Each structure stands twice: as structure tokens, then as C-alpha cells.
Amino acid sequence: MIENIEDIEEVEDDPLFRQVEAMFYNYEDTKEEIKNLEEEIEFIEEDYEYRGCGAIEYSEKVQKSCNIESSVEIEVMQKMKILENLKKLKRKKERDIKRIERAKRNFNHEEKEMFKIRYTLKIKDWTMYAEKINVGRDKYYNIRYRMIKKSINTMYPHHNMKDTPMEKFLA
């Protein structure tokens, strides 16, 4: 348990602590972004029109390069690259959601309430939480600290292996 607020502020400077808390704040938005990405992927996959399939114009032109790719092939490759990037982004966001949900399963009642108030409803004022759970300011920050530290260990189990003999297996 953290004894004073200064110790908590020092821990909050840890980049992984800040990253996990940012993921908590973005939890609902990330779920919505996944839905949007799924729709966009579907739109692109269903769009079979290619601009390169228009009428052919014949005129005297000299071939300037050895590029033998047709405009349709170029469009298909561009579309495939866009799809690949969207799917990769979607997978990353899905992994983030799974990590958060894994952490949430380990929350006690106080931590569940804090997550709901602070990260889902985005109410940062500690007094709102204090009124609901009947805790003081120091207890509020201790719950928050404990919840995030516990979440780091659950979301990133390999983080605990740093500076141990197991670290060589992480690379």
C-alpha cells in the first residue's frame, strides 16, 4: 500500500502505468473503433469496381519503361495494402480490448466501481467515487494505483520477467 501521495505520483511517471491508464480511458472508444474498422474492411472488400477497367484509348505512344503492371493490378495491390493495414490495426485494438477485459475480470468491487466512474463515465473528480464507495482521497488514489499496478501484471505478464533469467526468452 502506498503511504503518501508523493509515492503515487512517482509511480505514475512509469510509462507502462500511463499506457495502461490511457488504455482504460480509451476502452469504450476502442470498442467503437473496432466496429468502425470492421465496417470499413467490409466496404472495401465488397467494392469490386476498378477504375482501370474503363474504355481503352488507342493512340500512338512509345513505352517509356519496363513496367508491365496494368492499372487494375496496381489498384488491386493498393486495395490489398489498405485492407492489410486496416486488419492489422483492428487486430491490435482487439488485443488491447482483450487485455483490458482480462484485467477487469480480476478487479474487486472497489476497482470495478472505480473503472466504471473514472474510465467509462470519465469522471476524474475523486469526490464522486468517494461518495459512492465512502472513501477518502488517499484511499481513492490507493485503489487507483493498486488497480493499475495489478492490471499491468495481468495485461502484460511478460513485464514481470524483466531482469530475471526468463528475460532471454522474451526477445
Architecture overview:
The chain has 171 residues and is mainly α. 65% of the residues lie in helices and 0% in strands. It is built from seven helices and no strands. α3 packs antiparallel against α4. The longest helix is centred in the middle third of the chain and has 34 residues. The protein is elongated. It starts with a helix and ends in a 16-residue tail after the last helix. The mean pLDDT is 82.
Task: Pick out its properties.
mainly alpha, elongated, 171 residues
Brief rundown of the structure:
This protein is an all-alpha fold. The protein has helices spanning 5-11, 15-25, 27-46, 71-104, 109-120, 126-133, 137-155.
Blueprint (SSEs and pairs):
Elements: H1 5-11, H2 15-25, H3 27-46, H4 71-104, H5 109-120, H6 126-133, H7 137-155
- State the share of residues found in helices, binned by percent: 55-70%
- Unreliable spans are none
Overall shape: it is: elongated
Cα-to-Cα separation, first versus last residue: 32 Å
- H and E order: HHHHHHH
Strand content: under 5%
Report the strand count. Answer: 0
The number of helical segments is 7
**Over the alpha carbons, how many angstroms does the gyration radius reach?**
25 Å
Q: How would a textbook summarize the main sheet?
A: none
**Helix-and-strand structural type:** mainly alpha
Mean pLDDT: 82
